[in-house]
Structure formats: structure tokens, C-alpha cells
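Meet today's protein:

…
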Amino acid sequence: MTSRSLRLAATATLAAAAATASCDAPQEFLSLGTAGTGGIYYPLGGAMAARMSLNDPLRQYTAEVSGGSVENVNRLRARQTDLAFATGNTVFEAATGGQDYAEAVEDLRILAPLYPNMTHILVSRGSTATSVSDLAGARVSVGAAGSGTEQMSRQILEAYGFSYDDVRPQFLTFNESATALKDGAIDAAIISVGYPAAAVLEATTTGGARLLAMEPDRIQFLRERYPYFITGEIPGGIYPGADEPLETAAIMNWVVGMADLPEQVVDGVLRLLTDDREALAQVHEMVDQIDIARLREAPIRLHPITQNWVDLNLEQQ
């Protein structure tokens, strides 16, 4: 064999060895924090994890059940999970050191947007209220104690010049609120959730409850005071008795991680939610509400890879 043949053979052997080593490299296991099994976060997270595992041969993703947004961010900070879902208010408070966070989670970053949680304001059958401003002294369900909805309800009431001293707050879950509206046990309920929401459908279908819109200046008050609020719209025809679109305040759900999350992971999230979103469509119709342009309204800093993506794809629009 000539020296040239020996060199070619050696090169081929090294290339084959490198390819084999790449194929034999152990997969990296990453976890995605979601919420309880009864909501939207967990099935959506499961579908995303499965698809990202399929798209990335070097990584295996697993959706994990959790207590929701606050726990997810705490687990990110403790390096007990790799990426997670969280609501905009939790993300903002964590990054700035407010509410449940004595110390700011300074390296928390937004990777991508999910769907918005719309503020559903319901009044009971026969109520004459046409605005939240009419609810002084009313029995108002503000969400389960300590929940994201309860935190947001305080802010909604604040936008109308109210505090809990001005209403009779009832700390009920979504389903409990629907039942209480049907039974006449409460006068109104504030529910922050994506649409269509089962509890709201129940309240408006069998309970005769009615949805109220929010005035634009009240939404603007919230947006100026709390950067995680956005202007939302509940389309007409989603719920009985609400044939026209209803303007309301909304809070985004986000995919979040730490600033040092690898480029390939963040890129995989963005590609899935832009180019491969059909793979998630069977999980829930809320997938259709994912709008990548919502990154412009992010309440905290974007991950560097996400920021690069925005600079290349959104700033030119």
C-alpha cells in the first residue's frame, strides 16, 4: 500500500471512529416544568417534550408535574429543572424580586411565548352590573387563596379604585366559582385563564352567568402599572351570550429558562413553536393562539438566542 493510500485509510478510519463516537455519545436528559395534570400546562408540555426529543437526537426531554409557575421558577433557580412554563406576573415578580421572591432571580430569561390568559369577569344571572365599577359591596370570587388569579384579581380591582375592603372577596377555584354563580352564592367572579375555559362555559351555559368587558382606560392603567399585562380579546361566539368580541386585560404564559441554557435547546423551542407547531395542535386548540410576535411584549429580558431571533425576524417587520 502506498503512503498516500495509508493516509487515506487512516483518515477514513478516524472519520468512522468520530461518527461512531458521536452516535454512541450518551443523551443529555432535560426536564420541562409544567403544572398539575388537570390543566393545560402538563399535556402541552408533554407534547413539546416528545417533539423536541424527536427533533434533537442528543437530548431527551421530559415534562414534569409541578405546582405551577412559582414552583417552576424556584426549581429553575435551584437548577432542579432546565426549562419551564410560567405566567407573566410570576416571571416579572421573580426577575425583580417581588411578591413570592425575596431575592431576584437575576438570570431568569424568556425563551418563547405561549398562549394568553384572558381575564374573564362574570356576573350572576339577573345582575344589572355592566362594569367592574358596579361591584362595590358584591360577593366576588377572586380565585383560590395565593393563586396567580387571586394576585391578578387584586390588581383588576385596583384598576377600578377598589380593594378587598370594597367587595366581599370569596376565595374559590374556577370550578367552585362556576358552581357558586349557578347557585347564586356569589355575585361575580374573576377568572384568569385561556379560552375556551370549561368553568366559564359551565357558568354561562347552565348557570346563566354573563361576561363583562373591561374599559380600555382600565386596561391601560394595568399595563402602565404592571408590565406583564397586555390587551386581550375574547372572540365573539366562544361563550353563550357573548356574541361580540370582549376587550379585556390578559397575561401571557411563557417558556422560560436560565440565561446559560444551551443555544441548541432554545433554538429547538423556537423552531417547534414557529415551524413545527402543527405537531402540537392535537393537544389543545389554545396552540392556535401562540403568537411569536408577543416576544416584543416580554416583561423581562429575553434569552440571548431568543433576542437574536427577534432581531433577525421581528424587528424587520
Confidence is low (pLDDT under 50) at residues 1-22.
